[in-house]
Each structure stands twice: as C-alpha cells, then as structure tokens.
Amino acid sequence: MSRRHVIVRGTVQGVFFRASCQQEAVRVGAAGWVANRPDGSVEAVFEGSDDVVEHLVQWCRSGPPRAVVTDVEVTVEMPQGESGFEVRLPRVDGLWFVSVAGFGLELVEQVF
Q: Are the C-beta atoms of residues 71 and 11 closer than 8 Å to each other?
C-alpha cells in the first residue's frame, strides 16, 4: 500500500483536471482526493497499490488534454486508509469542504 501527496502546477484549473483525475483514479481503483488550490495549482492524494499510485503520479505529469503541466511535486506519506475518491472544494480558512452528491457542503477536515 502506497500514499503520495501531489501538487501539480501549470494550466491545471479550468481544464477538467479534477474531474479527469477522479475518473482515472476510480478507473484504476485508487482512493484519495483532489482539489484546486487558491494559487492556481491542483493538490491530490492517492492511496492504493504501488503500481496504481505510480500510475496516477505519472498521469498527473500530463493530466487531461487541455492541461499544461509545468511541475509536479510528490511527497511520500504513510497510508491512512483512504476509501473512495472525491473532488474537494478549496480550503477556506483552514477548512476542507467536499460537495456531497451535489446537495451541499460537508466539512471533512479542519487544519489548525
């Protein structure tokens, strides 16, 4: 089991990066999340087998067709038992929110 925390820079917002990333992660059976960051980058966490996680890190190096990736920062982390793969909304004052089936917002993490 592996976990990687990835920050992708370049033209990665407004090009369906998050939705495409989620689709690819679900397709290969990874868990984790992806979110836009206020600085224009995209942040993601991938958990799964070594091969699956490495595949997603490599996928981030190009992203979807309209993306122009200029840098991918990868940090190895200890697996935390993620389940499912979600698109998170950006952090607001240290809080992560996630859209729940289009019905609203749910607090998923508070950072101090």
A: no
